[in-house]
Structures are given as C-alpha cells and as structure tokens.
C-alpha cells in the first residue's frame, strides 16, 4: 500500500520532541480519508446491528496489518506490523482473542435471545410497533437495572438506532415488561461519564418527585454494571501519538419508563402534533393525544 493511500502512518523511531508532536498519524490525503471513512462505517454498522460494548477489527493491507479496538468513546489503532515477517504478533492476537469470553470480545451479555414462547408473546404484545418487513429483527430479552437486581423486558426492534460509532448511541424500544406484564418504553444510551452532568435517570426521578406534569414516569433503570468505555484511558500513554486532547468517558445507561411512544403519522393533523410538542416543552399535560 503506497503512502498516498494509507489510512494511517507510523512515526519513525528517530522522531522526538517537536517533530513527534507535529507528526500526523492520519495522513491528510483523499484516499487516506476514504479508507478511514470506510473503516469507521464498517465499525458503525457492526455496533449498530449488534448489541456491543466494544468491537475488534483486523485491518490487513498486505503486508502491513493493524489491530483496531473501538468503543463509544473512540478508536484505538495499533502500530503497523508485517504479518509475513512478524507473524507471531498476528498469531498471538488470534490465540488470545479465541480464548476471550463473549463479553471480552465485546458482546453485551445483558441482551440475550428469547425462548419460542417469549418470542410469540412479544410479537403479540408489540405488534403495533413491529419493525418494517425490510428490517428483520429478532425478539430479544434485555436486562434493565432495578435497584439491587435486574428486570427483564422483551424487545422487538428499536424505533431509533445509532447512526454514529461514538457518542450516546441511543436506542429506543417499545418493550414488554415481564415483571409487571405491561408495555413500557426503554431508552438505552451511553451517557457522558462526567461529574458535572447528572445521569438522565436522576433528572427524571427528581422531576417525578416534584410532580412535574407530562414527564415520563420512571419504572426503573441505571448504569449497566461494568459497561464503560476504555479508549479515553489511553490518551496519555507514550505510544498514543494521535492529536486528541480529551475524550468523553461513556457509561451504558438504561431507563425503563411507564410511557408508550406513538408514531408521528398517528396525529390527526399538524396542529395536534405542534400542540403536543409545545406542551411537552412547558410541562403541561395535553388532554387529547391525537385530536
């Protein structure tokens, strides 16, 4: 792969000080940008179609190979190595990866397939929100934090899915709550893990406590245990040469709400839709949703 077409380039061992600080790990070329865009697109689609905390990728451009790890905070790219002459590195990665648990490989273990009976139940209860035929989605069981335990809900396709690899990556699901046998709404997101920003669950609970009208009623929720991004932890490592000063830590957050979403097409007219939006802003409950 020529220098003009490389998505990344490594600094030489002889670079130090100002030269190293000014080195561009991401070449500013059209082909380089296209390559990086393609890699990001593949990772974005992978993490949008599967329930993941992170993902690994092998980028092989004969003979140069790179190991890539991505999560909702960013992407870590290894130094290139020649898999023909440095095959031990390549083999060791595959050996280690083969021995990882599913969680270690990036799969979200709090999302599981359903039994046949659960799938049938979900399709019956969630028929109104079934995914379009062109977007076939399996019925899944999602575990939601509920105090010191977990609550299981059935989901059959999200109303919204993440279009970006990094950031909140919000998904919204109409779900069937197996505990209360009731249809509810699940918000699944990767919240900023900063001290100056309250988790959304805490905000909603305060609003509910103050009896603010037209606010979704929280059933349960919280941070998913051990689901936190790692990319931001490596910015200060000596080998990290990308020019990024700060990355936001992301924490997996779920909120189960006693609230049912309706499609925009179900409003009787534009006035009814705008009225609902206005009353949501001012916190005034509207008496009729669709009239």
Describe the protein.
The chain has 291 residues and is an alpha+beta fold. The chain has three domains: 96 residues, no CATH class; 152 residues, 2-Layer Sandwich (Phosphorylase Kinase, domain 1), CATH 3.30.200; 29 residues, no CATH class. The protein has a seven-stranded antiparallel beta sheet with strand order 5-6-7-8-9-11-10. Strands 1, 2, 3 and 4 form a four-stranded antiparallel beta sheet that branches. A hairpin with a 2-residue loop joins β6 and β7. The longest helix is centred in the first third of the chain and has 20 residues.
What is this structure's SSE topology?
Blueprint lengths: L16 H5 L8 H20 L5 E7 L2 E7 L4 E3 L3 E2 L4 H12 L12 E3 L2 H10 L14 E7 L2 E7 L15 E7 L4 E11 L7 H10 L7 E12 L21 E9 L11 H13 L9
Antiparallel strand pairs: 1-2, 2-3, 2-4, 5-6, 6-7, 7-8, 8-9, 9-11, 10-11
Could you give a quick summary of the protein structure above?
The chain is α+β, with helices and mostly antiparallel strands and 291 residues long.
């Amino acid at each position: 792969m020529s220098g003009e077409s490389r998505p990344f380039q490594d600094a030489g061992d002889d670079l130090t000080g100002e030269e190293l600080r000014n080195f561009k790990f991401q070449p500013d070329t059209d082909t380089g940008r296209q390559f990086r865009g393609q890699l990001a697109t593949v990772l974005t689609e992978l993490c949008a179609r599967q329930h993941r905390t992170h993902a690994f990728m092998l980028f092989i451009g004969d003979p140069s190979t790179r190991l890539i790890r991505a999560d909702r905070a960013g992407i870590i790219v290894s130094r290139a190595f020649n898999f023909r002459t440095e095959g031990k590195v390549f083999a060791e990665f595959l050996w280690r990866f083969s021995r990882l648990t599913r969680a270690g490989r990036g799969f979200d273990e709090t999302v599981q397939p359903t039994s046949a009976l659960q799938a049938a139940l979900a399709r019956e209860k969630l028929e109104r929100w079934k995914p379009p035929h062109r977007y076939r989605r399996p019925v899944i069981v999602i575990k939601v934090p509920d105090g010191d335990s977990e609550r299981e809900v059935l989901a059959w396709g999200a109303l919204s899915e993440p279009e970006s690899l990094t950031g909140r990556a919000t998904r919204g699901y109409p779900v069937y709550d197996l505990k209360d046998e009731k249809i509810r709404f699940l918000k699944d997101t990767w919240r900023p893990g900063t001290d100056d920003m309250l988790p959304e669950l805490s905000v909603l609970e305060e609003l509910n406590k103050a009896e603010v009208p037209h606010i979704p009623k929280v059933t349960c929720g919280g941070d998913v245990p051990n689901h936190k991004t790692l990319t931001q932890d490596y910015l200060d490592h000596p080998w990290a040469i990308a020019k990024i000063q700060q990355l936001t830590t992301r924490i997996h957050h779920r909120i189960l709400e006693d609230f049912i979403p309706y499609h925009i097409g179900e409003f009787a007219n534009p006035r009814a839709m705008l009225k609902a939006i206005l009353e949501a802003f001012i916190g005034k409950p509207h008496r009729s949703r669709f009239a």
